[in-house]
Amino acid sequence: MISRRPAFDGHKTASEHHEAAFREEIRLNKFVANSGVCSRREADTYIQAGVVTVNGEVVTELGTKVNLLTDEVKFNGERIRGEEKVYIVMNKPRGYVTTASDPHADRTVMQLLKGCDSRVFPVGRLDKNTTGVLMFTNDGEISERLTHPSFNKKKIYQVILDRPLESADHDSILSGLSLNDGEIRADELEYIDAGDRRKLGIEIHSGKNRIVRRIFESLGYEVRALDRVYFAGLTKKGLKKGEWRYLSEGEVNILKMGAYV
């Protein structure tokens, strides 16, 4: 049965709250996101588009609740389940597209998740030629939190340019540049090798698309290699290119609390 009762209004009795908890009801968008199909924000769009059914009935009303134990939820005709939360970190190799589904892509990061039985999706994107730390999960809330513009957490990349970075450009990146979508500046920018000024480490908090490449391209440099070495408190330590692992319980707790810089 589909429940369309309003959320807790502060006037229910203790027995009513116990009964509600026993029924294991959650919002439909959360159920869809937890199944690994998409984020919760995207789930709202799919629900309104009419591609989600509950017990054979198309449901387009946001805020609808479903019973985890008894309701049958389908997405595009395929049954989905509110699965156990899974959190994965991968060292993404070059040449793979970051997408859960792209019929036009020769190679996607999903093809590297052999041995993972849960349906997960990548958190954010690394472009095809960018390597490094990439997270996967079926936790729509965590995914939305980490990819929302207000996320504003530290990300660190290692960059190799086509030519040495000039001192004036180094200073401009730290003081701020004007791109077509606004001002941007790096928090830290250091040379990895004092003898080779093509190789740099850059720390940035912006979540804008392709922001590191665009920073250097705006100054006339070509980014020959870009490797993300830190994201959401995670590193690629111990992982070869293309390898992945499940996060430890401690890492998951830190992730959920946002207790990282």
Mind explaining what this structure looks like?
It is built from seven helices and 16 strands. It has helices at residues 14-22, 28-34, 40-49, 140-147, 167-175, 211-217, 249-257; strands at residues 25-27, 52-54, 57-58, 65-67, 73-75, 78-80, 87-92, 121-122, 130-137, 155-161, 177-179, 182-184, 188-193, 196-204, 223-231, 244-246. Strands 7, 8, 9, 10, 13, 14, 15 and 16 form an eight-stranded mixed sheet that branches. Strands 3-2-5-6 form a four-stranded antiparallel sheet. A two-stranded antiparallel sheet has the order 1-4. The chain is elongated and about 65 Å long. Residues 1-23 have low confidence and may be disordered.
Task: Give the secondary structure arrangement, pairings included.
Elements: H1 14-22, E1 25-27, H2 28-34, H3 40-49, E2 52-54, E3 57-58, E4 65-67, E5 73-75, E6 78-80, E7 87-92, E8 121-122, E9 130-137, H4 140-147, E10 155-161, H5 167-175, E11 177-179, E12 182-184, E13 188-193, E14 196-204, H6 211-217, E15 223-231, E16 244-246, H7 249-257
Parallel strand pairs: 9-15
Antiparallel strand pairs: 1-4, 2-3, 2-5, 5-6, 7-9, 7-16, 8-9, 10-14, 10-15, 11-12, 13-14
Question: How would you summarize what this structure contains?
Answer:
The chain has 261 residues and is of the alpha+beta class.
